[in-house]
Automatic annotation (TrEMBL):
This is LCP family protein. InterPro entries: LytR/CpsA/Psr_C, LytR/CpsA/Psr_CW_biosynth, LytR_CpsA_psr. It comes from Saccharopolyspora rosea. Residues 447-460 have a biased composition (Pro residues). NCBIfam families: lytR_cpsA_psr. Residues 75-245 form the Cell envelope-related transcriptional attenuator domain. Residues 370-381, 425-436 have a biased composition (Polar residues). Residues 341-423 form the LytR/CpsA/Psr regulator C-terminal domain. Belongs to the LytR/CpsA/Psr (LCP) family. Residues 369-388, 425-469 are annotated as: Disordered. Residues 437-446 have a biased composition (Low complexity).
């Protein structure tokens, strides 16, 4: 993410190297801001592959402390949405936690970080079926599909348009941190984490490239896990901005050229970005006028055996639109599930499972329909009558993100739930599970940790950096 921010911060010089940059058409056709304001999505891709889909060399992976190269996939482990107001003024940036449970078009509800990988895999399979064999074309076109999916999901979640984006992978982060010759950070407590390689004392210190990557990737051993990691990323980017300003990078051609060389291979921007015209805004960002916040979560739950963040999309849209100067979204309409009848069929060997699930759904405003056993199967599903998908999607999300499908045999006004042998009762929303339905229900989802205060960059000239856990 540092390299993506550096791209923003040194926008003026990019005109010289424009033809050497990686660009993408993934943003073509989307809605854009009006009146001179600008929204930029920064995408940190947890990929151990280069732009042609080739594995990074082992010596690079060792420096990144990134395993053997099989980890990470194409998850967008960092998403930061920056708003630059028309006419200048302080910019606002929101970090989107990577494990937020969201609706992903064409998929069941899942972590927001997975939207990129789902779309990329589908696009690559389709391209191969069409006879495309060139690895560069496969990687370029399928990654564009992943970018489009990510942009669509973020637009839907936040309710605001996206004007530009920049994407960077782990190698890009390492290269840009190396070009900066160290970045200052400050820790409230000493840390040691074998997973990320983070091993630092408390207090202020200067990190080299490998240490910088470990610093922003650590989540094990932190009180709030991923949320504390997000706070570290924000603090690190604030320090990068402060260093660029204090080191005179903008007026030193040799320093600028080192940064250009570091990002040419591993940073991708949208093809419509006029980075020369962005120079004024970039200078404002580096002057300390950028404030970071993290979008709130409501708590935690388990979906398909993975921990996810429960969120309130209406609350998030209100927060983002208000902070970015857009009119607040209208109140959420009454749930379309009100009055919908749910038939629950037990295709597992668990006695009383259908009744328990029906009781849970009643607690969320659904009416109890047919409760019965059916032929054994392993996978669960939610079926709906064609044209009546909305209620089915709500049921599916309540039951841990089950797949949905249309079925003309489902009666009008009904949703049919088929519970297979792999269904986990831990996926039920425990806070409303009736305790009289048999064995005690699972514990309620953990409450969200208290929100950390927003990270503000140090005031110009004070020489400080934010201290974090």
């Amino acid at each position: 993410m540092a390299s993506a921010v550096v791209l923003c911060l040194v926008g003026a010089g990019w005109a010289t190297y424009r033809n050497a940059l990686n660009t993408s058409n993934a943003l073509d056709g989307g809605e854009h801001s009006t009146g001179g304001a600008m929204n930029i999505l920064l995408i940190g891709l947890d990929s151990r592959k280069d732009q042609d889909g080739r594995q990074l060399p082992p010596q690079i992976l060792d420096k990144l402390h990134a395993g053997d190269g099989e980890e990470g996939g194409y998850n967008t482990n960092t998403l930061i949405l920056i708003h630059i107001p028309a006419g200048g003024g302080p910019a606002t940036a929101f970090s989107i936690p990577r494990d937020d449970l969201v609706s992903i078009p064409g998929e069941h509800p899942d972590k927001i970080k997975k939207a990129y990988g789902y779309a990329k895999a589908k696009a690559e399979n389709a391209l191969r079926a069409q006879g495309v064999t060139d690895q560069h074309q496969l990687e370029m076109q399928s990654r564009d599909a992943g970018r489009r999916a990510t942009l669509d999901v973020v637009r839907g979640l936040t309710g605001v348009p996206i004007d530009h984006f920049a994407e960077v992978n782990l190698a890009g982060f390492y290269d840009i941190a190396q070009a900066l010759h160290g970045v200052d950070v400050c820790l409230n407590h000493p840390v040691h984490d074998d997973y990320s390689g983070a091993d630092f004392p408390a207090g202020r210190q200067t990190l080299d490239a490998a240490q910088s990557l470990a610093f922003v990737r650590q989540r094990h051993g932190l009180p709030n896990g991923d949320l504390d990691r997000t706070h570290r990323q924000q603090a690190f980017l604030s320090s990068v901005a402060a260093k660029l300003r204090s080191a005179g990078t903008f007026t030193d051609p040799s320093k600028l050229q080192a940064l250009y060389g570091a990002v040419q291979q591993d940073v991708v921007i949208d093809s419509g970005w006029d980075v020369l015209g962005f120079a004024g805004e970039a200078q404002n960002l580096s002057g300390g006028n950028l404030r970071f916040q993290t979008l709130p979560i409501k708590g935690y739950r388990t979906v398909d055996g993975e921990d996810v963040n429960n969120i309130d999309p209406q609350q998030i849209r209100t927060i983002v639109r208000t902070a970015f100067g857009y009119p607040a979204p209208p109140p959420a309409p009454p749930t379309p599930a009100a009055g919908a009848t749910v038939d629950v069929l037990n295709a597992s060997s668990a006695t009383g499972l259908a009744s328990r699930v029906a009781g849970t759904l009643e607690g969320h405003g659904f009416s109890r329909g047919q409760i019965a056993n059916t032929a054994s199967r392993s996978r669960s599903a939610v079926q709906y009558r064609p044209g009546e998908q909305s209620a089915a999607e709500q049921v599916a999300q309540l039951l841990g993100g089950l797949p949905t499908s249309a079925d003309s045999s489902v009666p009008a006004g009904h949703v049919r739930v088929v519970l297979g042998s792999t269904f986990k009762t831990s996926d039920l929303p425990a806070s409303t599970t009736p305790q009289s339905a048999g064995a005690a229900g699972p514990s309620a989802p953990a409450a969200a940790p208290p929100a950390a205060p927003p990270i503000a960059p140090p005031a110009p000239g004070d020489g400080d950096v934010p201290c974090v856990d």
